[in-house]
Specification:
With about 210 residues, the chain is an alpha+beta fold. About 55% of the residues lie in helices and about 10% in strands.
C-alpha cells in the first residue's frame, strides 16, 4: 500500500504563503505517520511577459492585505510589486521542481525560502540569481542548481506539473490531496485553519493504519 500527501501550490501564491504554517504542521503530521510529502507546482501566473498594470497591482495587493489579516503572515507592503515588475511564477515553480529532482528533501525547504523572500522581504524571486542563492541556502550547490534550473528537462518537468494539476481540474491554490493506492481524497482547496484540517488528515491516516 502506497500513500502520500500531495500539496499542489505555487510559491508566489499569496494564500499559499498564508497557508504555510498550517501546511508545515500537516506535513509533519503526515510524515510522523510514515506518509511522505509530494510537491506539485500549480503555475498560478505563468508565461507573463508584461509588467503589471496599476489596476492589477492594486487588485493583487488587496489580496495580500486580506491574507495578512486572515492569517497573520508577514508581508512587506512598502515598495511591493515595483513598477516594471513582471509577475511570472514559472521561474519560482521551476526552482522547486529543480530542487525536487536534485534532492527531494531540499524542495520543501526551498518553498519556504522563496515565499519568505518574496512576501516578507520584497525580493524579486523571478530572477534566476535570487533563486540560486535561496537554493544554496537550503543546501543545494549553487552552480549545480543553476545549470539544472536552465535545463530543458526541468522546463519540461515544470510544465508537466502544471498539466497534471490542470488535468485534475485544480484551479485554485493551496490544494491538499491525500493519495492512497492511486485514490485521491481532497483535504482542502483553498485556505483553511489547522483546527479544521488536522482532524481530517488524522482520520485519513487512521483509515490507512487499519486498511
Amino acid at each position: 500500500m502506497t500513500s502520500r500527501l500531495l500539496y499542489v501550490m505555487d510559491p508566489m501564491c499569496s494564500w499559499c504563503w498564508g497557508f504555510a504554517p498550517v501546511a508545515r504542521q500537516l506535513v509533519e503530521q503526515s510524515r510522523a505517520a510514515g506518509v511522505p510529502l509530494a510537491l506539485v507546482m500549480g503555475g498560478l501566473r505563468t508565461g507573463q511577459g508584461a509588467a503589471l498594470e496599476p489596476t492589477t497591482k492594486r487588485y493583487i495587493l488587496e489580496h495580500w492585505h486580506a491574507v495578512h489579516e486572515a492569517t497573520g503572515q508577514p508581508f512587506r507592503f512598502e515598495d511591493a510589486l515595483p513598477d516594471g515588475f513582471v509577475y511570472d511564477t514559472e521561474p519560482a515553480c521551476r526552482a522547486v521542481v529543480t530542487a525536487r529532482r536534485l534532492d527531494e528533501d531540499c524542495a520543501w525547504a526551498l518553498v519556504g525560502e522563496i515565499q519568505r523572500a518574496f512576501y516578507a522581504e520584497g525580493r524579486d524571486v523571478t530572477q534566476a540569481s535570487v533563486l540560486a542563492e535561496l537554493a544554496e541556502r537550503v543546501g543545494l550547490p549553487r552552480i549545480e542548481f543553476a545549470e539544472a534550473f536552465d535545463s530543458q528537462d526541468n522546463h519540461l518537468a515544470t510544465l508537466a506539473d502544471f498539466s497534471w494539476a490542470r488535468d485534475l481540474g485544480i484551479a485554485g491554490f493551496p490544494t491538499l490531496l491525500a493519495e492512497r493506492d492511486g485514490q485521491l481524497a481532497l483535504l482542502t482547496n483553498g485556505y483553511q485553519p489547522l483546527g479544521e484540517l488536522a482532524p481530517l488528515l488524522e482520520r485519513w491516516l487512521e483509515r490507512g493504519r487499519h486498511a
